[in-house]
Design a protein that fits this description.
single chain; mainly alpha; 150 residues; two-stranded antiparallel ribbon; two-stranded parallel ribbon
């Protein structure tokens, strides 16, 4: 990410917002040092107490390690998700060069809803960024901001 931020800052005159893997104060500071004017933090806030996500999903984020996410569905809409039985099925199909239509059939409808909002840890997509390994507890938004600022 850092090299990309440096390149963007050198070649663009618009504000740059860094995203991906930012889950702590250090990540924010590094992004700003490399030319970002702001950051987007997803997974950390998805696991917040106030988030409308299911507790199973929040706990899956807390339990996941740095190497527990995979990029999937490259032919139909790239997603990074915590490994689970559904992700394993997708990875198997992708390793066999499955067509987009076959992946869409497996995906079905509302797979993210199943994982994130219904808490189905086996058949849902549990979207999460690479910073998931830095998230070790479910905090309130106030606690998250206090840690990011102080």
């Amino acid at each position: 990410m850092l090299e990309l931020l440096d390149q963007l800052k050198s070649n663009l005159s618009i504000p740059i917002i860094a995203a991906g893997g930012i889950a702590d104060k250090k990540g924010i500071e590094i992004a700003l040092q490399h030319g970002a004017e702001g950051v987007q933090i997803g997974t950390l806030f998805a696991a917040a107490k106030e988030s409308s996500a299911h507790i199973n999903y929040k706990q899956a984020i807390v339990n996941a390690g740095a190497d527990d996410t995979k990029l999937i569905l490259k032919k139909v809409g790239l997603t990074r998700a915590i490994k689970n039985p559904f992700v394993e099925k997708v990875l198997e199909l992708e390793s066999k060069s499955a067509a987009a239509a076959e992946l869409k059939k497996l995906l079905g409808e509302k797979r993210e809803r199943k994982g994130i909002f219904e808490g189905n840890l086996d058949e849902g997509i549990l979207e999460a960024g690479v910073g998931v390994g830095k998230i070790n507890e479910i905090l309130s938004v106030k606690e998250i901001f206090d840690r990011l600022i102080n």
